[in-house]
User: Which sequence fits this backbone?
């Protein structure tokens, strides 16, 4: 697999994991656990979006 293909696969895995975490949060009975899962899902989603934009050349990493 090419480097670009590997990066796309990694981004897709991150998005899938974020969706899994959101689904787990919806099923969680404990409010603290629900909040923790939702925050983790949000961080993953944000990171995948940032990496996607960096790959597209839309943004540049901070130094």
Assistant:
């Amino acid at each position: 697999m090419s480097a670009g293909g590997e990066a796309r696969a990694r981004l897709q895995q991150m998005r899938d994991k974020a969706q899994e975490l959101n689904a787990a949060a919806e099923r969680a009975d404990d409010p603290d656990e629900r909040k923790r899962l939702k925050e983790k899902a949000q961080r993953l989603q944000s990171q995948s979006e940032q990496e996607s934009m960096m790959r597209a050349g839309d943004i540049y990493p901070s130094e």
Observations:
- The helical segments are 3-27, 31-56.
